[in-house]
Specification:
single chain, alpha+beta, nine-stranded mixed beta sheet, 17 strands, 24% helix, globular, B_amino_transII, Aminotrans_IV, transferase, branched-chain amino acid biosynthesis, aminotransferase
């Protein structure tokens, strides 16, 4: 039994052969006009039959405004969950073929307690952003890279994955269905979270018999509470984020649960996040909890070499390309903690943090400060400006990285 939307129409990929396909012009207006009725609708299949009280109240509380923009206090937007209108679901069975993807009202999904994702962590996630331009159109940033990275991770975890085309179609439909939740220009962005989980029930350690692909979205502001102010990192020596031969280079869900303890300890001491070292020698820099790290020394920008324990970040890859175009020498190599402490500037990159300058790093009770008066370094500012200008459509995208949704 498959889930369905509460509206009379179903929204599906043209390639799926199921449901009614609406134009991008009609879709947001239709969804807005029906969103109040959808808030309490029942769903079939693995979608919960009644949305949680919290989700329903949150959605209806902001169910005002216009078809293009919800009535919301955008100035107070941080990085926390704000339930939106719709999410996307698509399933596949043991044949490995994903079909019948469709939009359903945002809310809980139903899982068997024996689901592989709950028992054995067979799951992946992705993250990307959508920005609203001044003309009202919406830009996605390098979504093909996310689709490809999910497929690489799925292969590592013995999971079938949506094709690149299916991934892109799901992201586009979900963003357009929630268009009114894309913040106004300059007020934030729409964070897009694709997930691939082993939803089928299984008792032994083995690939799941069924998989579910999910896409939900949420408007967000800055990841760190102080916005673009330089952050403080605490170097971790007891715990390690990943090990050689493990899964540190894919976005499996288990990679993030393992950093919470060290991250909490760091924040209790007044730091923003944790800097991890390699698990073999305990001296080479790897990455921060959820982002890559760079150092600047003169005209040289260096970042840790991808050796299988570090996530190949899409923002990381983009910043490398931008830096090279700006005339910087970029090196991907092993970087010792001592080298990092002697850098002119240090910054982090990631979908959530974008490009965040580092103000201090603490290592074995030694605290090193970068820059003056807790301000971002010149190179960090230059790279941030160049990167976000492309991401937000403020400059011509000569790299071909953005995808516009009209």
């Amino acid at each position: 039994m498959e889930p369905r939307t509460c509206a009379a129409h179903r929204f599906a990929s043209p390639a799926s052969g199921h449901g009614t396909v609406l134009s991008s012009r009609l879709l947001p207006r239709l969804i807005w006009s029906r969103s109040t009725r959808c808030a309490a609708s029942s769903l079939r299949g693995s979608v919960a039959r009644r949305r949680s009280r919290f989700s329903t109240l949150m959605t209806t509380a902001y169910n005002t405004g216009s078809p293009d923009l919800v009535d919301f206090n955008w100035d107070d937007l941080g990085f926390q969950l704000v339930p939106t209108d719709f999410m996307y679901l698509m399933r596949c069975s043991s044949d490995g073929v994903f079909t019948k993807g469709e939009l359903v009202p945002y809310g809980p999904i139903e899982l068997n307690p024996a689901a592989a994702v709950l028992n054995y962590g067979q799951g992946l996630l992705e993250g990307l952003r959508a920005h609203r331009k001044g003309d009202g159109s919406i830009l996605l940033f390098r979504p093909q890279e996310n689709a490809l990275r999910m497929r690489i991770g799925a292969d590592r975890l013995c999971m079938p994955a949506p094709s690149v085309e299916q991934f892109l179609e799901a992201v586009k439909l979900t963003v357009l269905a929630n268009k009114r939740w894309v913040p106004p220009t300059g007020k934030g962005s729409l964070y897009i979270r694709p997930q691939l989980i082993g939803s089928g029930a299984i008792l032994g350690v083995a690939p799941a018999p069924e998989y579910t692909f999910i896409v939900f979205v949420c408007p967000v502001g800055h990841y760190f509470k102080d916005g673009l102010s330089p952050i403080s990192l605490l170097t971790e020596e007891e715990y390690h984020r990943a090990a050689p031969g493990g899964t540190g280079d894919i976005k499996t869900i288990g990679n993030y649960a393992s950093v919470v303890s060290a991250q909490r300890r760091a924040r209790e001491k007044g730091h923003s996040d944790v800097l991890y070292l390699d698990p073999v020698h305990n001296k080479f820099v790897e990455e921060v909890s959820s982002c890559n790290i760079f150092m600047v020394k003169g005209n040289v920008i260096s970042t840790p070499l991808l050796t299988g324990t570090i996530l190949p970040g899409i923002t990381r890859k983009s910043v490398i390309g931008i830096a090279q175009n700006l005339g910087f020498q970029v090196e991907e190599r092993n970087i010792t903690i001592d080298e990092l402490l002697g850098a002119d500037e240090v910054f982090c990159t990631g979908t959530a943090v974008v490009l965040s300058p580092v103000g201090t790093i603490t290592y074995r009770e030694r605290k090193v400060e970068y820059g003056k008066n807790q301000e971002a370094g010149v190179v960090s500012q230059q790279l941030y400006a160049a990167f976000t200008a492309i991401q937000k459509g403020l400059l011509e995208d000569s790299m071909g990285w953005t995808l516009q949704l009209n």
